[in-house]
User: Which sequence fits this backbone?
């Protein structure tokens, strides 16, 4: 492998127009420079962006996209395509340039609208906006962790559907990752798990340019990345010259040959390559080159300094081969799938259903219905029963917890452990029963909440699986980055949280979520549901499985809750309305009492006490604010009539957001402090979350 040179110009400006018989090396360089300057021109036109990564990483991206990547620009959602993730999402113009050049629905005008309002080329890639973008990236580390999720989904589907004579699931996940990605803790979490799982179809190319936004990486990042990944169990390869296309190709081929380990290729690059005064400096990381430096870079690499958004015909022809190549690859796959369908019709039908995202017919017919019970059960236990029922009818349900299955009750019993088939279950504690291998549906994420959230997002985006994760509710703090991106990207991940409040009890304030419901409710597109009893838990899961347009957060209790007598109170199916009147027979109430989750019990007790005094009380369960707000204004008015201003709300959390429902006269009973370590009933009493306090507040409003 040769050494990286400061500047080369194997193709002159004249040759771009007149070279009749261009060598492969010259065509490679021409094509690489096309990527570089499309990116640099778009960034300069926007006067905003990150030219350093596209200019430095263009050779590795070119090599991957023209010599390895299996994709079909005419059908970006082809099931067996390779997945490409640009984890360093700030280098988005690298991806946009590749998408345009290879024939995706992204025009040159779209590139010229880079970072402009309403364009298909936002500052960082967004999966729901741009054809060919597999995942939303930008916050560093997320993309690489998503890539682990893609590789997991591929391995799982391959284990289920492939047969010795038919490989219908056989694709790679490629990730271009950066120094910044690898500094983030999320990549440690996700990559350590990927190594443990031996995900051989995952290949990362590390843009090792030694420069970050604030200066040299030597200021803060001096570890040996190769040794680190070797310790994770990855196959580690090195390319010393980031402009050497042949060396990069050889490294990728070697990575593909290693089937029992994920691979990382450390590619030594120069950030902003070609810019004579700014390459290899932090100045080129996050700022346009400037008109003069851009012209100088073009001259340096044999480009027309006065041309903007110039695409040489020879380069375009090279890139556009991807259209026909992709169609042929997809057609070949379709022939194989048609043959598979004849031999394995049931499996083929199941594969098609899953990849479309359709649910099995009557999948929810066997969901449990819990009888009224004053002793009740924890909603986490109700959730466990529901999950076992769903697992039987929705085979794509797959997931696990952050080392907390015995507490979250989120295992799918008897449905196997997702593990490398090269390892053994012998002597391993905590296995759930069933298969041990990639066909298993239970994940052991370890204590890796942030990585877990991003991995689940990647699995959901891959398709063919319906993934969930689980941990204690206060640990949403560790997951928030991944959850926010799920919401932004409209990814149907299911996030399960137990130990929902001060009802955790003895574990104390570190494990008692206070502000976390409010924190979930402020995330746009996130649906948060906190059921009040076992039957609301059933309906919460029914909604989550049916909802495929955004993430759903399910929040369950540790402590037992009364199972409501639904012959007396409104059906739990009303949960999908977000809020509903539990006792609709009460007309013209004196006061409205409202609560979520475990505090619904308290307003029910308060109603009993108030009714003995001749007062008429409306009880409102509000399991999901988001669903309530999605309803009509007429429905919201029917639940919370504006003429009734005597309102009391109680929730074991902070007040934030409740004022919209209690109004200017209303009283909120909640928490403005952290919890305490004691039996949960004591904590509720000491912190003032009692039925008696609700009664007192209601009476003060009725006077």
Assistant:
């Amino acid at each position: 492998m040769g050494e990286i040179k400061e500047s080369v110009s194997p193709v002159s400006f004249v040759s771009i127009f007149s070279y009749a018989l261009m060598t492969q090396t010259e065509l490679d360089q021409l094509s690489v420079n096309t990527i570089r300057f499309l990116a640099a021109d778009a960034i300069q036109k926007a006067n905003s962006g990150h030219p350093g990564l596209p200019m430095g990483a263009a050779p590795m991206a070119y090599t991957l996209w023209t010599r390895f990547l299996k994709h079909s620009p005419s059908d970006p959602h082809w099931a067996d395509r390779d997945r490409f993730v640009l984890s360093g999402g700030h280098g988005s113009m690298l991806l946009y340039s590749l998408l345009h050049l290879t024939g995706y629905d992204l025009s040159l005008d779209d590139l010229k609208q880079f970072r402009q309002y309403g364009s298909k080329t936002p500052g960082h890639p967004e999966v729901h906006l741009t054809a060919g973008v597999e995942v939303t990236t930008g916050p560093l580390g997320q993309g690489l962790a998503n890539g682990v999720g893609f590789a997991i989904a591929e391995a799982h589907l391959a284990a289920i559907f492939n047969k010795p004579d038919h490989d219908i699931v056989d694709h790679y996940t490629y990730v271009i990752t950066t120094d910044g990605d690898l500094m983030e803790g999320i990549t440690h979490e996700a990559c350590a798990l990927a190594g443990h799982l031996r995900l051989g179809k995952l290949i990362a190319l590390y843009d090792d340019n030694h420069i970050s936004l604030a200066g040299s990486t030597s200021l803060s990042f001096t570890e040996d990345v190769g040794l680190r990944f070797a310790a994770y169990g990855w196959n580690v390869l090195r390319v010393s010259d980031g402009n050497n296309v042949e060396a990069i190709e050889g490294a990728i081929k070697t990575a593909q040959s290693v089937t029992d380990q994920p691979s990382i290729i450390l590619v030594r690059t120069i950030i902003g390559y070609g810019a004579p005064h700014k390459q290899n400096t932090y100045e080129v990381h996050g700022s346009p080159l400037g008109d003069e430096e851009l012209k100088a870079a073009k001259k340096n690499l044999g480009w027309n300094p006065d041309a903007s958004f110039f695409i040489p015909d020879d380069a375009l022809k090279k890139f556009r081969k991807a259209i026909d190549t992709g169609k042929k690859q997809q057609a070949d796959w379709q022939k194989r799938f048609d043959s598979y369908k004849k031999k394995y019709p049931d499996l083929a039908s199941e594969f098609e259903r899953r990849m479309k995202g359709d649910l099995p017919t009557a999948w929810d017919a066997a969901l449990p219905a819990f009888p009224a019970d004053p002793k009740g059960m924890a909603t986490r236990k109700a959730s466990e029963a529901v999950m076992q029922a769903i697992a039987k009818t929705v085979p794509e349900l797959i997931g696990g917890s952050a080392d907390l299955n015995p507490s979250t009750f989120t295992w799918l019993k008897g449905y196997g452990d997702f593990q490398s088939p090269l390892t053994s279950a012998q002597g391993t504690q905590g296995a759930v029963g069933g298969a041990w291998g990639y066909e298993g549906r239970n994940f052991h994420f370890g204590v890796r909440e942030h990585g877990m959230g991003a991995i689940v997002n990647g699995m959901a985006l891959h398709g063919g699986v319906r993934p969930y994760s689980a941990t204690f509710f206060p640990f949403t703090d560790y997951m928030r980055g991944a959850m926010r991106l799920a919401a932004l990207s409209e990814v149907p991940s299911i996030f399960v949280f137990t130990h929902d409040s001060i009802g955790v009890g003895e574990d104390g304030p570190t494990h008692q979520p206070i502000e976390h419901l409010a924190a979930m409710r402020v995330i746009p597109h996130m649906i948060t549901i906190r059921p009040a009893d076992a039957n609301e838990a059933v309906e919460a899961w029914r909604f989550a499985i049916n909802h495929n347009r955004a993430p759903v957060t399910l929040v369950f209790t540790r402590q037992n809750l009364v199972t409501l007598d639904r012959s007396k109170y409104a059906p739990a199916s009303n949960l999908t309305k977000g809020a509903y009147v539990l006792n609709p027979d009460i007309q013209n109430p004196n006061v409205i009492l409202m609560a979520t989750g475990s505090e619904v019990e308290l307003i029910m007790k308060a109603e009993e006490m108030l009714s003995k005094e001749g007062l008429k009380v409306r009880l409102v369960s509000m399991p999901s604010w988001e669903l309530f707000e999605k309803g009509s204004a007429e429905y919201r008015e029917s639940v919370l009539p504006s003429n009734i201003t005597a309102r009391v709300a109680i929730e074991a959390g902070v007040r934030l957001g409740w004022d919209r429902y209690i109004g200017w006269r209303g009283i909120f009973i909640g928490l403005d402090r952290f919890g305490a370590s004691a039996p949960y009933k004591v904590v509720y009493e000491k912190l003032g979350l009692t039925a008696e306090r609700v009664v007192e507040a209601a009476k003060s409003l009725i006077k």
Q: What stands out?
A: Confidence is low (pLDDT under 50) at residues 1-20.
